[in-house]
């Protein structure tokens, strides 16, 4: 949800890959031990992240599942 709030298109595979590439460039994916995942109430790019359960909010369960399954 933080990535969505900061403007990344977490609904699409391309947007998810773009986010992961940015994380890899910034800190290296090998250094990421945990990802906090939740859904969000606000539109993309709102810079606000009010947490919702995974099956609630703007991000589809398909998009969240796709993100979880990425390697």
Features of this protein?
single chain, 71 residues, mainly alpha, two-stranded antiparallel sheet, 3 helices
Element layout with pairings:
Blueprint: H1 2-5, H2 13-26, E1 39-40, E2 51-52, H3 61-69
Antiparallel strand pairs: 1-2
Summarize the structure.
The chain is mostly helical. It has helices spanning 2-5, 13-26, 61-69; strands at 39-40, 51-52.
**Helix-strand pattern, N to C?**
HHEEH
**Unreliable runs:** none
Structural class based on helices, strands and sheet pairing: mainly alpha
Helix content: 25-40%
What is the arithmetic mean of pLDDT? 93
Number of helices: 3
**Total DSSP E strands:** 2
- Strand order across the largest sheet: 1-2
Please report the distance between the alpha carbons of the first and last residues.
Answer: 19 Å
Content of β-strand: 5-15%
Largest sheet: 2 strands, antiparallel
């Amino acid at each position: 949800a933080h990535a969505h709030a900061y403007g990344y298109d977490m609904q699409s595979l391309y947007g998810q890959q773009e986010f992961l590439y940015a994380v890899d460039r910034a800190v290296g994916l090998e250094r990421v031990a945990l990802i906090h995942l939740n859904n969000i109430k606000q539109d993309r790019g709102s810079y606000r992240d009010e947490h919702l359960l995974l099956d609630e909010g703007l991000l589809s369960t398909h998009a969240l599942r796709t993100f979880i399954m990425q390697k």
